[in-house]
Request: fold
Amino acid sequence: MVGKAGFLAGLADGVGICWGLGMEIRKRDEQVPFVTKDGSVIRSLLDRANAPVSNQSLAEATVLAGAVTERHYHGVSEEFYYVLEGVGVMEVDGEERVVGPGDAVLIPAGAWHHIRAEVELRFLCCCAPPYAHDDTFFE
Reply:
């Protein structure tokens, strides 16, 4: 067991602390953003491309003010969106709701959805099973 002094020393030198087998840590700023098939800018935080993930994935998404993601669904993956910043309109299977910081949205597998940013949106997206391009379908 690591004592308080060792813990504080690890924090002070800026090193990501990892005790125990199997822990994976990925720093947000080290993950390269890319544009997904729906048009949002994604930064994969933990997924099959950068970690030994098997059951879920976590990404940060950004949608610029005035932009809207292309309406789509995932055949297998269930998604959660958790809004960090901004305001938008979320549509799931025809129902629209305004979303903002602190809102969590459930998007069931098979549900058509898109999000429109009224102001720039930044949100976390968790998919289970992990996000896969070939599980994304468009109208």
About this structure: Helices lie at 4-12.
